[in-house]
Amino acid sequence: MLHRRRFLQLGSLGLTSFSFAGFRSAGAARKPIVISTWDTGIAANAAAWQVLRNGGRALDAVEKGVMVTEASQNCCVGLGANPDRDGFVTLDSCIMDEHANCGSVAFLERIKHPVSVARRVMEKTPHVMLVGSGAQQFAVAEGFPLEPQVLSPEADKAYKNWLLKSEYKPVINIENSKNQTAYAPTRFENGEWNHDTIGMVAMDAQGNLSGSCTTSGMGFKMRGRLGDSPIIGAGLFVDNEVGAATATGQGEDVIRICGSHLVVELMRQGHSPENACKKAVERIIRIKGNKAKDIQVGFIAINKQGEYGGYCIQKGFNFAVCYADDKNFLVDGKYIL
Ligand code: ASP
Asked: Looking at ligand 1, which residue's alpha carbon is closest to its atom 4?
């Protein structure tokens, strides 16, 4: 009954044909393919697709793709995003390739493309993760320009508005109050909610997988707070034998279950991408109990067969799927609550 009701809800949006776990290709894997979180994923996928359609590497595709979102002032990813409670935009990002090489930056300020810095960490240092002033110092040494420390006009407005209502003190889960939901939407602008993160996973024509994830984190977070997005295994995980997954939503709860790694391991056990995402979401709900209704988490995943899927806690999450010049479309995430 419940399933039927959700089917009808999706049908009324004209999305039924794309709202299943993906496709089961009978023979060869569907590739190349790229998927990414939220509606901003459409533009990001388009950029990634240009790399993939020309035989390029999935790693290049997932970097190029999310750079579009990072550069967009119209989105809560990148320097135009909402600041922390002290008024500073701090960015987190990671990237992972088919050889389990990975790089990450977190608490990075004044750098436009954290994903590219994460890639440099991966390629040019013996480390996986750099944070804060060290990450910024590395970025500058690598030739990334230091951008001015100013809020975008929309973020400035949103921050001033937030300051009116909020006391400056570290209240755990203040984000869960009615006025400031912790999960993805953080700013109302031009009549539409924006989102804080883009996670992208792709398989190239050679059948190799890579992924990226980049975010400004939760709007008005405590200074120094990191979510799941820069953490390999939480916000992103790639295993070239199995598949790749990424997450969005309340990062604390994704970290608690090593979410993206869990999704990939579930696919290794034979679950489809959609079912693996669903099981990870169910685990969060089991842990949170009746507090699960206050948060949103969404996972998306692809496997080596080019099947894709996504699942979230509650209605409102979508993701973009692209596997041909004329196939770049939004899928409504199925949800549990
Ligand atoms: N996962 C991100 C974080 O917790 C936020 C988001 O995806 O909206 O920082």
From this structure: 251
Measured in degrees and rounded to the nearest 5, phi and psi for residue 162 equal -65, -40
The per-residue pLDDT for range 159-192, each reduced to its tens digit, is: 898 888 775 544 333 333 333 333 334 444 433 3
Bridge partner list, 335: 312
> pLDDT tens across 223-239, in order?
999 999 999 999 999 99
Closest ligand 1 atom to Cα of 195: 8
Which residues fall within 8 angstroms of residue 26, CB to CB, at 6 or more apart?
A: none
Query: According to the model, what pLDDT value does residue 34 have?
Result: 98
Residue 275: how many other CB atoms lie within 10 Å: 17
Count other Cβ atoms within 10 Å, centred on residue 30.
17
> Is the beta carbon of 212 within 6 A of some atom in ligand 1?
no
Say if CB 254 and CB 228 are below 8 A apart. yes
Across the strands, what pairs with 201?
Answer: 35, 211
Q: How far apart are the first and last CA of the chain?
A: 14
SS3 74: coil
Query: Which one, of 90, 116, 97, 122, lies nearest residue 196 by Cα?
Result: 90
Instruction: Give the list of residues 6+ apart from residue 46 with CB closer than 8 angstroms, or none.
Output: 68, 322, 328
- Å from CA of 23 to ligand 1 middle: 28
What distance in angstroms lies between residue 24's CA and the mean position of ligand 1's atoms? 30
Q: List b or e across 222-258, with b for residues whose CB sees 16 or more CB atoms inside 10 angstroms.
A: beebbbbbbbbbbbbbbbbebbbbbbbbbbbbbbebb
3-state secondary structure of 311: strand
The CA distance from 2 to 69, in Å, is 35
Question: What distance in Å separates the CA atoms of residue 210 and residue 184, rounded to the nearest whole number?
Answer: 23
Distance CA 176, CA 295 (A): 7
H-helix or E-strand containing 18? none
- Whether the CA torsion 134, 195, 264, 68 is positive or negative: it is negative
Query: Residue 99 carries which side chain, given as an amino acid letter?
Result: H
Ligand 1 pocket test, pick from 218, 254, 300, 319 with the greatest ligand atom count within 8 Å of Cβ, gives: 218
